[in-house]
């Protein structure tokens, strides 16, 4: 995806009715306006044991793009969204799927994902199970070569909250219960090395929020935990680290209150805090930290409840200033985010934009139980719906006297980092949020980097760990917990 393959009007989303052909069910292209190139039939064998029905995701690449690694490079994610082709209700016949895909030139490589588990957006990233992956080569002349996809049936991931000092808590949280969701929530508690042998010692608590998909023992969050522990040992500060599961059927919770999601704010600020204080030797000194969606949640929860948290750290957070992220200079939705919404709508499964809509613009009368803030056919904003999204943007809290007063209580105890090369465009909204804090006289440590959205754990999270742990150290009031 080294160059743009066309504007949003040329996105080919394969989401029309199926039709029969020789006993096999197939799909055909829903022709968007000004579509270019040719439509070719691609066929692929699915692995033995995989379900025969699912959603197919196709993305066509040129040879030069394949050679340059575009298909594997997250830096091109937003551009790839503009060429994703989605075909729902695909049924394999004699172990093979067949679908029509638009290509812009020959030869071409069509990258396929066959999602048999309804994983939605996660299928674009090649989930470990439930997805069959492969490539179909389209020659200069003639029919594409039939390919064989690789994958295995969906399996629930093994419990990752295991270890000598790790405890899994499964909480009944009726305040978050909603249709299709039993309200069963998971926390992964990591106890300090000295915990078992120091019966009188109490410890500060760090709530660690995962990124999109929201597992309580998310791998990235747990790598941060190890870094925090090491730096804590250097500083002489031990803490209880708690991975907070935020996964929902729609994708991820945003820890707020919604008629669709339930009252996640009460769950996070009351039930989690109460349960941890009842079960463990905690100090009333808590902090929040997270990366990506977890970074957004760390900011949102701490700024809504500064009476509970002494500090918060946020890395590459989902847009803290929604307007800066979503809108262009004309006030229109940016093409890449319109493409993202269209893809998730076509996939009809969990997703990032689906999570926003379910949390921020629920509507029981809508086909999926929520409204999009944009007309999917024209790309025009729907002001009344977008206003509901705007109202949930953390920067908007600074525009109200009550919100500003709450955030001021955290002055000097906020650290935010983001990378200029962030593949999801999250640097500018983070920078703008920091600027608004400073304009309001709120002290914040801003640590911009040249990183993208992934990797660089030591350089990215090390300063955040030092910042938080220093502020979690008990003050001169006789509190214990520091060695």
What does this structure look like?
The protein is an alpha/beta fold and 483 residues long. Helix content is 27%, strand content 24%. The strands form 6 sheets. It has an 8-stranded mixed beta sheet with strand order 11-12-14-13-19-20-21-22, with helices on both faces. Strands 5-4-7-8-10 form a 5-stranded antiparallel beta sheet. α3 links the parallel β13 and β14. α3 packs across α13. The N terminus and C terminus are likely disordered.
Strand order of the largest sheet: 11-12-14-13-19-20-21-22
- The DSSP helix count reads 13
Query: Into which percentage range does the β-strand content fall?
Result: 15-25%
Could you describe the largest sheet, including whether it forms a barrel?
8 strands, mixed
Shape verdict: globular
Mean pLDDT: 88
- State the separation between the terminal residues, measured CA to CA: 52 Å
- What is the percent of helical residues? 25-40%
Rg, rounded, reads: 24 Å
Write down how many β-strands occur, each being a DSSP E stretch of 2 or more residues.
22
- The low-pLDDT segments are 1-34, 476-483
